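Our preliminary data section would be incomplete without showing what the modeling component actually yields. Below, a chain of 806 amino acids is followed by its predicted structure, encoded as tokens that our downstream tools consume directly.
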Amino acid sequence: MALALTAASLVGLVALHREGLRRVLLRAVDPRPLALFRIAFGCCLLVSLLEIAPLAPYLFSDEGIVPRAAVPELMGRGALVGFGDGVREPAGPRDAWAVAEFVSSGRWSPLYFGDSPGGVAVHLGLLLAAALALTLGFRTRLSAIATWLLYAGLLRRGDAHWGGEQVFCAFLFLLTWSRCGAAYSVDNWRRCRALRRRGLLSMPSGPGAGAGAAPSPAAPRGLAAIYRRIPAWPQALIAAQLALCYAANGWAKAGTAWQTGDALLLVLLRDTYVRWDMSAAIAAVGPWPLRLASWGVMWWERLFPLVLVGLAARALGRSGAPALRGPASAAARLCWGGLAGAAAIAAAVPMDLVEKPGTPGAAERAAALAVLAAVCAAVAIAGPRAGAAARRLAAGPLAPKWWLGFGALFHLGNHALLAVGAFAPATLAAYLVCGAGPWAVATLRRALGGLARRGVPVPEHLREETACEDPSLPHQHRDAAALPGWAIGGAGMVVLAGGAIALIGGAGARAWHAAWLAAGTGLTIAGWRIARRERGAAVALPEPWAHGPAGRLAAGGLVAYHVVALLVWQLPAWPGLPWRAQARTLVGPWIELSFTSQVWSMFAPNPPRDQQLLRATVVDAAGVRHRFGEEPQRVDDLPRPHPWHDRWRKIADNVLGQRERLAQWHARYLCRRWALEHAGEPPREVLLEGLRAPLPLPGSDLREHFAGQQQARVLMRVDCADEPFAQLAPEVRARHGLAPAPAGSLRFAWERPATWAERKARRDPLAPLWPLAALGLLGALARWAREDRRAHVAARAARAGEQERG
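Predicted structure:
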């Protein structure tokens, strides 16, 4: 009930505040903050790829942890449902419908079809090249799409190291929709060079001061700006994704270690990720500084979405959107009252706010919801006065500088003490689009100006203050076309009804997809008619639109769909949400296509309270026991993390229990690797053991403590002759010049039906049609956009002709 009331109230607020929202999200803004984010994020992605490069054969090739015969079932899933596994059926698609299933699944990877170690090396090399091109801003849109496709394709073939990769996946998908190459890029440098040669570029010391100039007798075609404006909505999505990441992570930290403040102490005492031996330092400072830091980080993460409130209040205040009056104001108050009621209902049943009975955190969550209910009720009572109060808060406690400053200290300290990977600085890079961008641009300009004063050649627009594109230039979009509130509210209610029919009525994904398509079709028809009626009319805007009417509708639809999908995907597993699993299946296809699946629970609900190591033993055919080569950790060499992040440690954590099925696949891999390195002779068995010891007391000797306290437990014992997928595949033997395996020696185990006919019978026959219908709607929007573009160009030409005649 609370969730339904929340959804309906939010739809109403979006419909009522549509003018302010579109002026904030669909405006054109300075490209430089996003460009700095692109560079910083790209550098972090390159470092992350270099971290996993040595492990690429293990993670992604047919000689690694998952052999090729298991890929259709284990990794390909819906994409390869119509493909043979090469054992029971010939490899490849069985018919045209199988190809349609592969295309519509969105789960694409070239490594499904060519995953030899050489093929993996080529794939990784192309990915590194694409990521470097993205960082430099060379063919930026193409390189962003290529990076996303290749990165997703890599992880769809192997994810045993999965951890911070979800940060890269989430932000990389959003970069593909942005114009992040409009500044500080090879693309913009080439564009400016070509325009300067033709005398069409506005220079900082010339007309327009680098921000562009309208056509004039001196420049009949006008002068182009150095920094063209770009859409704001991709940056807003990046900020929303960051807030969701922090909030979900913070509220997942509900265990006793976080409540007592001992979480950071436990993390620093565990050798898995710490860069240095922190034992003596912890003993010197005592527990209270670490407790205060633990509580501070936990609540900062939980409340980080308040940054979005501050940013939205500031942007709405500058947008010039008219305040709600009369019935609209009363309806908005009713919607805020609905949100207050929904939060109060949820707060009244704290036992439904935790995953399992007796789990800590229920009281905290209920109290937070009660505070939220009080705030929403206050907004409902204050009405139009709430906007002024929000702007005052945005200039004070909700100002980004406080929240981002704390986050910067946290991440820098985290990076100095813990080797958790490049995703941490990648997260920090997102601050550039959360309010830190203008400061970073000004700091860069001052630094480059200082270099210029010392004789270093620096372009004028980089060392001098240069504004972005003049918003008054005639080519900017300022049309008056706008969807009415009834259309937006009606579309939202259609989607909510589709979701209810899908979940409660049992119609499933068909009702959900049909509702979105119906809403999109209705808005497209209404928007097209309104745009034709309002063609030629303009509206005064502080910042111009980023798109024409068709582009604004497409961008707004994408923002709405992606935000809804992320919020549904992040629904907590509470007893009060019995349809959570079914709701996640509705948005699952989009989450899979965008490759933005997310589980934010770092050191949650509690950090580990013990030190664990992985020990592998191989028993050869003669019964001799061997330690297997360079295993991630060895009992006689307690791991001391290096400054460089060792991804083996994350794999070992996953094998040791974070992902239970990996232990079996890792043991199978060791069987095959031993055979590959010993002329095809398989070992007798492989034994995986977990060595566990309680965390040491601060100041104690770590090696002596572990040696004296360790306990061994068997994770997996496999007989390499009888274990499925533990034998070398024929193509691997042939690749290394080994003799063919004896007949009948290969073992397999399958969960999916053997034939494509059996698997096809379980599929929804309409599943591939929904993407085609969505493509048809996009085609209609594209045709409308071309029509609008021609009309916009014709209007500009007409105005220019009038000016010449005048």
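The chain has four domains: 2-29+232-252+275-316+329-463, 34-203, 494-539+547-601+768-805, 610-727. The radius of gyration is 29 Å. Preliminary results of this kind motivate Aim 1 of the renewal.
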